[in-house]
Amino acid sequence: MKKYLYARIFQLFVVMLGASLLTFSVTYLAPSDPAEMMFMSKDVIPTAEALNTAREAMGLNKPFIMQYMDWLLGICKGDLGYSYTMQMPVADMLGMRLVKTLELSLFAIAILFALSIVLGVISAVKKNSFADILINVFSAVSISIPSFWLGLIMMFVFVVKLHIFKITSSEGFSAMVLPAVTLAFPLVGRYTKQIRGAVLDEINSNYVVGAVARGVNRKRILFFHILPNTLLSITTLFGMTVAALLGGTAIVENIFSWPGLGTMALDAITYRDYTLLQAYVILMCFIYVGINFIVDVLTHIIDPRIEMFGKEVQSE
Questions:
Q1: Closest by Cα among 192, 182, 159 to 104
Q2: Which of 118, 130, 221, 288 is paired with 86 by a 20 to 30 Å CA distance?
């Protein structure tokens, strides 16, 4: 297990290093001049002398490798740079926006699991019944609906027509309802099908048949044996869902004017704030790689029999 952890941590380091090099290279090759964009964000037309002074101060006159090393060293020290469009340190901006995205993501995950577990279990227990058919139709519709279309429809119905919710504020529980439902709804169908299939596999297994033959209560079998054993099948899917939500769903956040990572990234692209954009990409890479690492470890903890790197892992 220790060897596996060390190997995975080394892989994480290599992936992050490669992502940082690729991110910096793409922004370095971008046609816009960061110094000129800084002046434009302040509605100032710079002179040639002012541009040269700004480039010198920003280190843009250094060779590529030196610029990259300075930037990478700053990241390792926690210095992500300064956002000239937001007029504040990038680290502070990321911290504030990550909190808002985290709030929205946790609410969406709660809705997702509350619906998908109930629907998936009902669909499996009542296989081929009218309820099962209805849930399967709902799942298909859920998977097929684009989140941006759903968000616009919900805004039109609940904000414009019914006046139940408002989107003028991002504070409070009610402000999260519509964007959280918009994020969760397209995922409910996928999770419902996954849970249904996992529960059906467990229902037909030998230990369930034996427990039923011994007269064990069916609800006890379902909640204390079948459901815990379905965790492994949805762990990977759940990990990627968490990573995607924490990564910031730009379209949904933009529709509902939610001040999360997604809207921040769109603003950085619009105003060509390369420092902010670089930090955002690095944060997203770290979230995806980190969540993938956690999922792999949890998968092995849940079922130590799972092979890693093609070999059976022995506990040390």
A1: 182
A2: 288
Report residue 314: phi and psi, to 5°: -100, 135
* The pLDDT value given to residue 306: 57
Mean pLDDT by runs of 10 across the 316 residues of the chain is 77 89 87 77 76 81 89 88 84 90 89 90 90 94 89 90 77 83 90 88 83 82 80 74 73 86 86 87 87 79 58 44
Q: Is the dihedral of CA 72, 84, 169, 142 positive or negative?
A: negative
Are the C-beta atoms of residues 38 and 84 closer than 8 Å to each other?
yes
Domain spans of the chain, in order of start: 1-85+271-316, 91-269
Q: Residue 315: its pLDDT value, please?
A: 42
Architecture of domain 91-269: Orthogonal Bundle (1.10)
CA distances from 26 to 13, 20, 281 (A): 20, 10, 11
- The string over 75-88, giving b where at least 16 C-beta atoms fall within 10 Å of a residue's C-beta and e elsewhere, is beeeebbbbbbbee
